[in-house]
Design brief:
D-Maltodextrin-Binding Protein, domain 2, 2 domains, globular, 18 helices, four-stranded mixed β-sheet, 10 strands, 44% helix
């Protein structure tokens, strides 16, 4: 199928995904649980009708934006919005730790009443009958009417298993850069991968580390770099991988992965990048120890406070697909607030999930982000970086869902990250990557599980 004919189809698919919450970020915080209040022996116990419903909420606690949402929005307003609910807040961690915790809770029957769901583990919880289908609840109470595109929340079986603000569709990979470093060294924004490598060579000659990314756990290659490079070779191959119509022995995949190998070998990244966590990788950039930072646009609001920071799309490798025409976007309909189907208070748990996603939407709306869940909030003045982000997104002709979230089971996704991390060492070849990962891809059960 020609790319032009696919644009309308893929944009529709683009609207049919929603939010994970940037689970790879690692800003550290701890939410301490308040001790359970006890009725004094001298107090008169409250009538049963006045007793608060107790619910347990587990959230991502290694993600800077999710931390802000929890502390400055959810906790701040919950007493007024849900006065009959007493919430036990459980910090879930993030990334692999969060995934493992969810798997353990699912197996032991100890799932929270509400949690932040992720595509990496949600299918197993759904198959066990433990993740609520929201369809009836949000239709009955009218909450579904707040979404501009309700279809965006539906999984492949037509059911709704998570509530998301819908910002993820607008989270795409970008390269952030320091304008002054580029200007002082006579560097123009690259339009092709070859130009990008020339930029990196120039920076290295000036004693400047070109780019920081999160390498720990293979996060960069896993979440966007491999896919971005594949799209730069041939977007159709990325689309075919999403639909299980090809595999990783496709020649375009090898060419794409070779570019990551080349970047690692030629010192584009900081030394030890394979063990570099998200927070430190971002700090290297904001402290100007690197000229560029590779990540997703969920950082736009934070980085936009510095008018010296700009952004550009990852450069393409094929003249048929000019830089800026094609991008990956984040998200899955399984990402967002979920409810335990076996909760003792399902109805109130649904209300808590609706409240949480509304606060999440409020946070992003106030930053000027586009959303599926409508808030009616007039955003504050957008930074120049946010304006540029929206412009680049709107000018993109083809938007492709994230392969990692939408075409891999948990085991395959984990190996995808591990082998991607190996690429960042500079000692692991693209040929070996293709051989090793394709064997895992052949055992991928995602398509059987849908």
């Amino acid at each position: 199928m020609k790319i032009k004919k696919m644009l309308g189809i893929i944009f529709t698919v683009a609207l049919a995904t929603s939010m994970i919450g940037c689970g790879g970020q690692t800003a550290d915080t701890t939410t301490k649980e308040a001790p359970a209040s006890e009725t004094s022996k001298t107090e008169t116990a409250k009538p049963a009708s006045e007793e608060k419903v107790k619910l347990r909420l587990m959230s991502l606690s290694t993600d800077e934006n999710q931390i802000k949402i929890l502390e400055n929005y959810i906790k701040k307003n919950i007493a007024a919005e849900l006065p009959n609910v007493e919430v036990e807040f459980e910090p879930g961690g993030g990334g692999e730790d969060y995934t493992n915790k969810m798997k353990t809770y699912n197996a032991s029957g100890d799932l929270p009443d509400v949690w932040y769901s992720g595509a990496e583990y949600a299918t197993a919880i759904i198959k066990a009958g433990n993740q609520l289908d929201f369809t009836e609840s949000i239709t009955g109470d009218g909450f579904i009417e707040k979404f501009a595109v309700p279809e965006a929340m539906k999984f492949s079986d037509g059911k709704v298993y998570a509530l998301s603000a819908g910002a993820d569709t607008y989270f795409t990979p970008r390269i952030f850069y320091h304008k002054d470093i580029f200007e002082q060294n006579g560097i123009a924004v690259p339009k092709t991968f070859d130009e990008f490598m020339t930029v990196c060579k120039t920076l290295k000659e000036k004693g400047i580390v070109p780019m920081s990314i999160m390498g720990k756990g293979g996060w960069g290659p896993q979440l966007y770099m491999v896919q971005t490079m594949i799209q730069g070779e041939d977007p159709q191959v990325a689309l075919d991988l999403l639909q299980n119509k090809t595999d990783f022995t496709n020649p375009a995949v090898l060419q794409a992965v070779k570019k990551i190998e080349t970047m690692a070998k030629e010192g584009v990244f900081p030394e030890g990048v394979a063990n570099l966590d998200y927070g430190p990788s971002l700090e290297l950039f904001t402290s100007k120890k690197t000229a560029m930072f590779g990540g997703f646009t969920w950082e736009t609001a934070n980085l936009g406070a510095d008018s010296n920071i700009g952004m550009f799309m990852w450069p393409t490798s094929n003249d048929k697909y000019p830089t800026g025409d094609v991008t990956q976007y984040w998200g899955s309909p399984l990402n967002g607030y979920a409810v335990n189907a076996n909760s003792e208070n399902v109805e109130m748990a649904v209300k808590l999930a609706e409240y949480c996603v509304s606060q999440e939407a409020l946070f992003y709306a106030e930053q000027g982000s586009k959303l599926n869940l409508q808030t009616g909030v007039t955003p504050a003045e957008q930074s120049e970086l946010m304006k540029e982000n929206i412009k680049l997104y709107e000018n993109t002709k083809l938007k492709i869902p994230t392969i990692f979230l939408n075409a891999m089971d948990a085991k395959t996704g984990a190996e995808y990250g591990a082998l991607g991390g190996n690429l960042l060492t500079g000692t692991y070849t693209a040929e070996q990557y293709v051989k090793d990962f394709n064997a895992i891809w052949q055992e991928n059960t995602w398509f059987e599980n849908k």
